[in-house]
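Researcher: Checking consistency across runs. Here is Glycosyltransferase again:
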Amino acid sequence: MPRISIVTAAYGPTATYLGETIDSVKAQALPPGWELEWVVQEDGDAPSLAAQFDGLDFARYEANEAQLGLAVTRNLALSRVTGDLVQILDHDDILLPDALTALIPRFANPAIHWAIGQADDLMPDGSRASFASMLDHGVVPAGRVNEWAADNGGNWPIHCAGLMMRAATLRALGGWAASPADDDLVMFAALSEVVDGYNDPALTWLYRQHPNQTHKTQSWKTWGNAGRRIALQRAAAVRAAGIFAAEPVAPVDGAAVEAVEVGQLIPKENYPGR
């Protein structure tokens, strides 16, 4: 049975709206024959969110027990994903009930490796603000997103917090980047440069606006330009190297990938043959 894995990096001190995020996952409809897992990874050396996932048989919670940052937390979650597709969901945002049923069918086309629905901003007073898409709806050819970003000062027309992606492709490109800001943009710059995606007209999620958002912190503001520059550099380097998916990538057994085992760490001086 194919599986969709929702991935959430959580952080206790700013998880004020997590209850609403949980409710939105519980309300998700699925296409016939699909099953859901929710992989939650909590950052921080004092985890506090585990109890909120009690009784959710589709949720797989784990804590870092250390402050490792957003990108590392997302990659640790990815290491536990068993699904064919990954849906990103931040711990303060909301998936609308038909989000998964809208986007999953787009991947019936083997050439599509990412998809995004439209988002409304969810304002602090509960109102919503909508925005017209800056890209045409439908198939987005490889490279098109980064061309738009390069032409617009390193601003991207796709919001990565609502992405759905093939898990195998995300892993092949290294997951989220080791950037102090915009780790998701750096990841997406490579992904959208080498494979086609789909910009769906359906409204699938709500992007919550509030004072404690990660991108409103001083550290994010300090490093934001660097993150966007890294993303543009990565897109340009991928393009210059001629890296692209010449053929559609065959589906990968997510459970088999997740089940990869590592053995005991061997000191270098004891390597076989030394």
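Researcher: Does this match what you'd expect to see?
Model: One thing to look at in this run: The chain has one domain: 3-270.
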